[in-house]
Write a structure and sequence with these properties.
By secondary structure, this protein is of the alpha+beta class. The strands form 3 sheets. The protein has an 8-stranded mixed sheet. A 5-stranded mixed sheet has the order 13-12-14-15-16, sandwiched between helices. A 3-stranded antiparallel sheet has the order 2-4-3. Helix 1 runs antiparallel to helix 5 and helix 1 packs across helix 11. The chain is elongated, with a radius of gyration of 27 Å. The model has no long low-confidence stretch (mean pLDDT 94). Bound molecules: histidyl-adenosine monophosphate (HAM). The site of histidyl-adenosine monophosphate has 26 residues, from strand 6, strand 10, strand 11 and helix 11.
Length: 424
């Protein structure tokens, strides 16, 4: 039997890596524009960290974590998300002394033992951003607008749903109302919901069973239970989004799959990926840093799933952007090969992505290779060209041809070609 990758674990092959680099590049660029700094945190953490942050009765903690005992008998978990680790690091390294507001992002693999399907993997990658230290509603707006802009910048669209999950002051009264509602239809609910109706009633609204969801269409709305402060905060977030022209809809039934949220919660949803429609999601988590033993600072963040973004981009047919080399050199004959080899190195040191054939293939075969590698331009160098001190440069997109002057030295050739090609 040949060895294969684990179920739900995927190789990211060279053909797709371009898209990954494109997405991550755009994301880093935008995060930096919004004042975020990168932080790299470990993939393994003590299990307790995730239990205490994500919540004991969530699907992630109850069913999906990759947990094992290490050689010392310590319970270790492969991180299912990034927020918990970023906060742990923020507290452990005293990052709050660097300034009252910290804007941090991290990009990397996460692990959840879910049932694999289109857009749902067991190892997936998140771009995760967190703002620690501000409770201002405009920061919520700014963060949502940043997520929106990122999607727009990589050429994607989604719908934005927002909700408020209240705070420890107003949530208990909602919990009670919801519990009464659930108790009235307990026999129609799945086992998880029946259990959670007692331990963590809000959780039931996040149940993945379509049958349960049908029951919840008439569930009470948390928005009717918000205290004055939460309600004003939510109004300000909505007002901010209106101000920036970011379209949204309010979804009072969105509770998110993690327990740490307070007030603002949001999801970016697409209908183009089947059941796994969330391409990014997040919210505010005031109180979490303190609960983990840190200072009493509020926080808000979100994460986007890179695989889902890549899938969406792959579904578009007019993908533009970096493909193959900027230039492919076709050479014919030994003398032209040598000159071409030198020219290639010269141009690479000028920052151009250049490839050539080393196998002595025919002109036709070299052209095929240039096409296959999706080269932007092709320069043909043969004995005639060297003798006539002139070569032909072909634009592989438009088919147009241009002459390149070979009268000067290699430096001049390289400089001339560089001015005549497009570079990504
Ligand atoms: P989450 O909603 O669990 O939130 O995940 C965020 C995003 O990660 C999802 O919208 C989705 O795009 C992607 N994702 C999640 N699970 C999978 C999977 N099994 N396969 C592929 N993609 C997946 C969080 O993780 C929070 N930590 C977000 C956050 C940051 N909240 C505050 N700060």
């Amino acid at each position: 039997m040949s060895l294969k990758a684990l179920k739900g674990f995927k190789d990211i092959l060279p053909d797709e890596v371009n898209l990954w680099q494109f997405i991550e590049g755009r994301a880093r660029d935008i995060f930096h524009r919004y004042g975020f700094e990168e932080i790299k945190v470990p993939i393994l953490e003590k299990t307790e960290l995730f239990v205490r942050t994500i919540g004991e009765s969530t699907d992630i903690v109850e069913k999906e974590m990759y947990t094992f005992k290490d050689r010392n008998g310590t319970s270790i978990t492969m991180r299912p998300e990034g927020t918990a680790s970023v906060i742990r690091s923020y507290i452990e390294n005293g990052l709050y002394v660097r300034g009252s507001v910290q804007r941090l992002y991290t990009i990397g693999p996460m692990f959840r033992h879910e049932r694999p399907q289109k857009g749902r993997l067991r190892q997936f990658h998140q771009m995760d951003v967190e703002v620690l230290g501000s409770d201002r509603a405009m920061v919520d707006t700014e963060l949502i607008a940043m997520a929106w802009q990122l999607l727009h910048d990589i050429g994607l669209e989604a719908s934005l749903e927002i909700n408020s999950l209240g705070c420890p002051d107003c949530r208990p009264s909602f919990k009670e109302t919801l519990q009464d509602f659930i108790n009235g239809r307990l026999e129609h609910l799945c086992e998880d919901c029946q259990r959670r109706s007692v331990t963590n009633p809000l959780r039931v609204l996040d149940c993945k069973s379509a049958h349960c969801q049908e029951q919840y269409t008439s569930a009470p709305s948390i928005l009717q239970h918000l205290c004055g402060v939460c309600s004003a905060h939510f109004d300000e977030v909505k007002g901010g989004l209106d101000l920036l022209g970011v379209p949204y809809s309010v979804n009072p039934r969105m509770v998110r799959g993690l327990d740490y949220y307070t007030r603002t919660a949001f999801e970016l949803i697409t209908t183009e990926l089947g059941a796994q429609g969330a391409i990014g999601a997040g919210g505010r988590y005031n109180g979490l840093v303190k609960q983990l033993g840190g200072p009493d600072v509020p926080g808000i963040g979100f994460a986007m799933g890179i695989e889902r973004l890549v899938m969406l981009l792959n579904q578009k047919d007019n993908l533009e952007g970096p493909a193959g080399p900027d230039l492919f050199l076709i050479t014919l004959g030994e003398a032209a090969y040598e000159k071409g080899f030198q020219l290639m190195q010269k141009m690479r040191s000028l920052g151009v992505r250049v490839m050539m054939d080393h196998e002595g293939r025919s002109m036709k075969n070299q052209m095929k290779q240039a096409n296959k590698q999706k080269a932007g331009f092709v320069l043909i160098l043969g004995e005639n060209e060297l003798e006539n001190k002139e070569a032909v440069l072909k634009d592989m997109l438009s088919g147009e041809q241009e002459r390149v002057d070979l009268a000067g030295n290699l430096e001049n050739w390289a400089a001339d070609v560089k001015t005549k090609i497009r570079q990504y």
